[in-house]
Amino acid sequence: MEWTSSLIVPQDSIKSNWLIPAPPKVLSRQLCVSSALHRKNLAAAGPEKFSEEFIKKQVEEYNIGKRHLANIMGEDPETFTQQDIDRSIAYLFPSGLFDKRARPLMKVRPEFLPGQLKSVQWGADGRPFHFLFYTGKQSYYSLMHDTVAKVLAAEKQQVLLLSEGPVPQDTKPISLVGSRWLLKEELEELLVETISDHDYARFIQLMERLLSLPNCLSEKDFVQRYRKQLEIQSSKQQVAPLQYDENGVAYSTADGRRKTATCTVLLRDCGSGSISINGRDYLHYFPVLQDREQLMFPFHFLDMLGRFDGQCTVGGGGRSSQAGALRLAISRAMLSFLSEGQVESMRQAGLLTPDPRVKERKKPGQEGARRKFTWKKR
Amino acid sequence: MAPTAVSNKLKATHRKQFQELQEAGEKGERERTMTLHRLFPLRLRQTIAQVRLLHGSGCGHQLEEVAMEPELRKETSVFRTQVNDPACQSERHLGQYYTLPTSHLHTIFPHGLPARYQQQVKTFNEGCVMVRQPALELISYLKAADYSKPAVRYLLYGLKGSGKTMSLCHTIHYCSTQGWLVLHIPDAHLWVKNCKELLPSSYHTSRFDQPIEASNWLRNFRTTNERFLSKIKLRQRYTWTKRESTEKGSPLGELVDMGVSRVKSSSDVVGAVLKELRLQAAETEESEGFRLAVAIDGVNSLWGRTTIKKEDKSPVAPEELTLIHNLRKMIDNNWCGGAVIATLSQTGSLYSPSSAYLPKELLGEEGFDSMDPFIPVPVSNYSEKEFESCYLYYLDRHWLQHPHSKTDEGKKEIIFLSNRNPSVLERLCAFL
């Protein structure tokens, strides 16, 4: 049994240099606290809290140490990266320990990197800095507060303008094309605190309200901070240039894969519309209509049915996956013959997306991937 | 070229008749249209009044038949030809459909046409066959052949569904209209598999009889060659049992009837019929001879394997079956006065890979040696013109119901999906 004061300080405070100054000693009754309770309260204390100053000081010390290390090693301090630090420490303090995490290291604590950890939000006197600290989610509520202030300001301005006279407003609304609202996870990352789904919904609702007002052009920067630009997908597509063979006929090759079937396709701009697969006619290789329809899809979509001549080799998989692989390969091969708009429409049609579905693994204790053994009551 | 010379001659002699008939037809038509206007209301008149003058080239007797037809005649279109006699058809009619007269359908082809084609005939209420290059080639060979020499063997081969059986039927139609005796085995594969009853042969101890197949075939043979049955007399006496025998000099019809009624000895009857025909076909036309056409579909089954098993579960070789044994004798070219036209077929064949279609692969060593020398006739998928013709025919018969199939893009899709293969095209259009 230990006699301790009622205010529990985490044990780890002994390790760090200066954490929180001991609060003014409040005279309280000595309670009898057993070691078991002591340990429980440790867990309830939550993650460690550091003050802003402390974090800054740590980072400064790290940077100074980095420059010293660069000088020791005889390298340029300006261009001394973390990799160089690791190398130098491993050289200066060689360790025979097996566990990499036990070896000496010189790094900024990951929590101290900007945007990871909330430093202590109250001063030496214990008073919080932010007026909304006691809401629990101070950044979120302060954001909402600012946004509402802007909404009110915009409404007030609108009323003023209307009262002056019904002048036709030619303010254009903020263009939202090509961007999307930040996701909940992204917003959490920005605010460095957790928010609930309901909070997120309210935030989006409020922003939409702000955008619906006519005078919101001045808040463009504010709004753009909470929107993410989407990049055009098709610009990622790599289109190989067209090749020409001896007779001047344009041709292109491509590969395709589906499940375990792989294939290569050589498309020629001949004008015959005949396709041979593994040396045989496609009608005899795919007696089933469904497979031939799959082959037809890329040509039919672009209205180029009788234009190309194809030579394909395919292996692995079954008949359906071979047909799917061929379809993908043909679509990819056709890209070099097409314009940008057609490529985009192909991508939207799903012709260029490789099908990620593969056979699911069989699990032990079950008959198949999902099927369980017959359940017997006794 | 023999065929065009023949048709030119016929044209010259019958041109006068044709002109006379045409004038008569015109006059008659004017009168008929007057009565039509009086009797029928406008809409019906319009449909009936789509009567056009006949302008197909043809033989005289052909025109007589057509003039007898009712007033509601079909429009002559690009894909049809009025020349319904295979002897008069030439390269000009390539890709066009000609109609099989209904009487011929029942007599010549009681069992010969492919099953799907028979269904199509029933649906469309007419049997139309496309004039294609392999059949025309075969007919020209038959016209030009010398029948005092041993029988020539022709072999139709090609990819699955490319039209070998239909070409064979076209050739048989020609032979029938020319007055030949046609020995048509619709599918030799049916004789080597799924035999319900297998009797040990009474004639030869190591062989086996197939009474059901033999009697079926004899019945169909009787329907096809009615007029020859009374003309041909037997040269030999055949004893079937202690009490029954067929005397020398009796007509072939009696033998065939006996085979149909006495099912047990029907396989031997088949053998006897084949032997008689082989011997008698050698005679010339003046002394009441005839030309014999042996048409076998799926000839590769004669040298393949069978799925028939003996009672001790050992497989039966094809030579041990009486029917097959006798048929092999027919294929040998040691008789004169006729031709052997055969088709290879992978579809019904046993134990052969589905990619095989060449004679060497399907006939095997033994078969190839027996058939050698033969004239191979390749049959391929539809050409562009033939495909057009088939497509227009289906449109005309309102078989292609889907509105998209009537457009150009729909047509291109159909071409791609079927690759111009006749049977695949037919199956595809069946649900459009």
TrEMBL record, chain A:
One matching Pfam family: Ribosomal_S9
Keyword Mitochondrion: yes
GO biological process: translation
Superkingdom of source: Eukaryota
Any one GO MF annotation of this record: structural constituent of ribosome
Keywords annotated in UniProt: Mitochondrion, Ribonucleoprotein, Ribosomal protein, Transit peptide
GO cellular component annotations of the record: mitochondrial inner membrane; mitochondrial small ribosomal subunit
Region (Disordered): 348-378
Cell compartment(s), UniProt: Mitochondrion
Family under the similarity heading: Belongs to the universal ribosomal protein uS9 family.
The protein's name in its UniProt record: Small ribosomal subunit protein uS9m
UniProt organism field: Esox lucius
Originating gene: MRPS9
